[in-house]
Amino acid sequence: MKNQTDSSTINQPIALITGANKGLGKQIAIELRGHGYIVLLGSRNFDSGKTAAAEIGEGAHPIQLDVTDAQSIQAAATRIHAEFGRLDLLVNNAAIGQSGRYASTPEILEASKASVASLEEIRILFETNVLGVLAVTQAMLPLIRLSASGRILNVSSAAGSLTLNSDPAFPYRSFFGATYPATKTALNAITLALAIELEDTGIKVRAASPSFTATAINNFQGTDTIEVGAKALVLAALDTEGPTGSFTGPDGPLPW
Ligand SMILES: NC(=O)c1ccc[n+]([C@@H]2O[C@H](COP(=O)([O-])OP(=O)(O)OC[C@H]3O[C@@H](n4cnc5c(N)ncnc54)[C@H](OP(=O)(O)O)[C@@H]3O)[C@@H](O)[C@H]2O)c1
């Protein structure tokens, strides 16, 4: 990457995607690149980000970024400032479904029940899925403020919707629990808080949910391909004109 401190000299929009070495994050990077974006692929393991960026080719840059590591986040922000000068789009995509202690989906669902959920498991999940998003956002915000069309997209889940899960007819209601689903509820709250706070700046802050996609986070049990699953995310990521503070999914607006 060349040294770059004057953001006005890069005409292409610049996007950072966290957890972009695989899964939906990588697909978002591929599609944003297809729309002319310079894509910065955040990955906690630099080598896997490097491999993904090499597959995408020119205009794709790996960047070491562990969303739970303050030093890594600061180093990434410093590097983006030095080499690109600004950020037009931040996609907070990185997340985990569990800490690694559970072997199967039924075990994860059982362990998510609020009456028995491990507080340590909940802490680990919130650290990545909620505090990690906030930490990255706070570090990148000065760079986003330098953009003429700054946007933040938080990759959430319909599984975190309080409105949907309050409805006895919602088919996935029994999966609502204190671990992963609650992290997405908290992420939604932070999304809305930031959208309200930044309303006057023109920076748009949104949440979007993919469809149920076969990726590592669900042991590849999702029913959609990554290309199909990423559609709602790419649509929300590319939207420079729509309202701030929205929560959307594959079929349009989702209730918070
Ligand atoms: N798949 C679905 O059906 C579905 C449904 C609703 C919402 N989502 C959301 O979609 C997003 C992408 O998930 P996915 O389905 O693509 O799962 P995935 O393939 O497991 O990808 C998750 C990504 O997050 C990264 N990550 C995890 N912890 C990190 C950390 N501390 N720092 C930086 N990166 C970290 C992973 O990196 P490593 O490779 O190093 O582990 C990986 O790149 C997540 O926010 C997820 O909650 C997915």
TrEMBL record:
Key word Zinc-finger present: no
Pfam family, one: adh_short
Keywords: NADP, Oxidoreductase
InterPro entries assigned: NAD(P)-bd_dom_sf, Sc_DH/Rdtase_CS, SDR_fam
Molecular function per GO: oxidoreductase activity
Ion transport in keyword set: no
Annotated family: Belongs to the short-chain dehydrogenases/reductases (SDR) family.
Protein name as annotated: NADP-dependent 3-hydroxy acid dehydrogenase YdfG
Top-level taxonomy: Bacteria, Pseudomonadati, Bacteroidota, Sphingobacteriia, Sphingobacteriales
